[in-house]
Amino acid sequence: MTNTLVLKSSILGEHSQSNQLIDHVLEGKTGIIERDLAANPLPVLDMNVATALRGSADDLSDELKAVLDLSNQLIDELKAADQVIIGAPMYNFMVPTQLKNWFDLIARAGVTFSYTENGPIGLIENKKAIIVTTRGGLHKDSPRNSIESYLTTILGFIGITDVEFVYAEALNMGEESAAVAREQARAQLAKLV
């Protein structure tokens, strides 16, 4: 059985195109841990959060221990998964803040990556990532597609190099093109999951 970690980051809840695509393909499947990062927001990286992530539990206040415990829980979920499905709608040419917050909490030196003489190495191995990215316009093969380079880089940094992208574009360019994009994305996602 494949264990799947699902990260949803759309602020649109049940109206989210990326959430709907993921829900459609995972319907009836087991072994799923789901985190809706918009419905249950994570702390934003600031000095307190950075202090918690770099500290020892023995040296932290109760508030900062809670942040460290949350980070450890998120990393444990990631480590337990065989595959990660990430809903990453494009907001102003980037991933949602909610998804960036998750990466900020799990990217920890000595835990999910390590610095070596030859540069950083990722410590999260043998995982596949499937990115479901939705957009109102057409951006896939243009310089505006910053989501692909960002997610490939950050996932590779922690050791996840088997990354597939599922695009649903032109969702705000008329119902006909949106319907075609959704159907193509569903078919591609079904093959990957």
From TrEMBL:
Broad EC category: oxidoreductase
Residues that hold FMN according to the record: 10, 16-18, 90-93, 134-137
Pfam family, one: Flavodoxin_2
EC number per UniProt: 1.6.5.-, 1.7.1.17
Domain Flavodoxin-like fold: 3-191
Domain of life: Bacteria
Cofactor(s) needed: FMN
Coiled coil ranges: none
UniProt keywords, alphabetically: Flavoprotein, FMN, NAD, Oxidoreductase
Catalysis: reaction(s): 2 a quinone + NADH + H(+) = 2 a 1,4-benzosemiquinone + NAD(+); N,N-dimethyl-1,4-phenylenediamine + anthranilate + 2 NAD(+) = 2-(4-dimethylaminophenyl)diazenylbenzoate + 2 NADH + 2 H(+)
Single Gene Ontology MF annotation: FMN binding
Textual note on the cofactor: Binds 1 FMN per subunit.
InterPro entries attached to this UniProt entry: Flavodoxin_fold, Flavoprotein-like_sf, FMN-dep_NADH:Q_OxRdtase_AzoR1, NADH:quinone_OxRdtase_FMN_depd
Described function: Also exhibits azoreductase activity. Catalyzes the reductive cleavage of the azo bond in aromatic azo compounds to the corresponding amines. Quinone reductase that provides resistance to thiol-specific stress caused by electrophilic quinones.
Matching HAMAP family: Azoreductase_type1
SUBUNIT field: Homodimer.
PANTHER family assigned to the protein according to its UniProt record, in alphabetical order: FMN-DEPENDENT NADH-AZOREDUCTASE 1, FMN-DEPENDENT NADH:QUINONE OXIDOREDUCTASE
Family designation: Belongs to the azoreductase type 1 family.
Identification of the protein by name: FMN dependent NADH:quinone oxidoreductase
GN (gene name): azoR
